[in-house]
Amino acid sequence: MKSDSLEGRTALVTGASRGIGAAIALALDRAGARVVLVARSRAGLDATAAELRNSPLVLEADLADPDVPARLVSEVRQRLGEIDVLVNNAAVAMRLSTAELNAALVDELYAVNVRAPLLLISALVPSMVERGRGVIISISSVSAVVGTPQRSAYAATKGAIDAATRSLAIELGPHGIRVNSVAPGVVDTDMWARNKAIPGVIEEIEALTPLRRWSQPDDIADVVVFLASDAARFVTGETICVDGGMARTANLYGGAV
Ligand SMILES: NC(=O)c1ccc[n+]([C@@H]2O[C@H](COP(=O)([O-])OP(=O)(O)OC[C@H]3O[C@@H](n4cnc5c(N)ncnc54)[C@H](OP(=O)(O)O)[C@@H]3O)[C@@H](O)[C@H]2O)c1
Fold first, then answer.
1. Residue from 14, 20, 119 to probe ligand 1 pocket by mutation (most atoms less than 8 Å from CB)
2. pLDDT level of residue 2 (50, 70, 90 thresholds)
């Protein structure tokens, strides 16, 4: 079997009803995995599932509910068996000035972006430890790596994910479990639809990106497949930027001079 094959593996992807999560589910399926698709929207999940070949399992769930992660893991275990790969992709994004911040919004961001991934990991780890293997991948953001405007609360949730990734890599590495995150830059999904409509934004993002284009969801998905596979067998504790070079460069003049 090729080292990048996921044949025989089961992967759970949160936020698989659209955008990056749907692309990740498709790419994992193409690599041979059986994929469990999780999100709130049944219609979106069904649309993703219709593209997959390896008998996907669709589970409608609201990850803002703290009881959901353990319930999901137990349901998958009963219906399909153990989960080999967890992809924490679902998240809420908000552009908020400090004046707009309030407890409810901060709690909403943390519930989905931080608490749910940690509780999913906590529910999954015992069986991964027992089997001596497992892969955990979380989708972080350029906002965790460099400062981005009006995103203090969102960026804090993504920074938390990267910090947890490094801590978990130490705790779980001795058990054969790898833990990494992937930090996209600006990806052409619903998350950016509103901002994209602002005149000049498309060109501004291109100018800030050394590779001079917006990222597409499959740019992120291909790196997730790599991390999920044995091709990445000695990679753990990493945050991999998949952003066309945006976070690691200081393109202060937008490429104009
Ligand atoms: N797009 C970007 O430019 C960008 C950049 C950096 C990082 N990211 C990160 O990449 C990931 C995916 O982003 P995206 O652009 O694909 O976002 P998106 O198009 O807004 O999709 C978000 C996904 O998360 C799910 N979700 C949200 N709240 C949920 C909840 N309470 N329970 C269950 N599922 C929930 C949504 O499904 P339902 O609505 O059906 O529940 C949807 O499938 C996120 O972690 C995001 O922070 C995106």
1. 20
2. confident
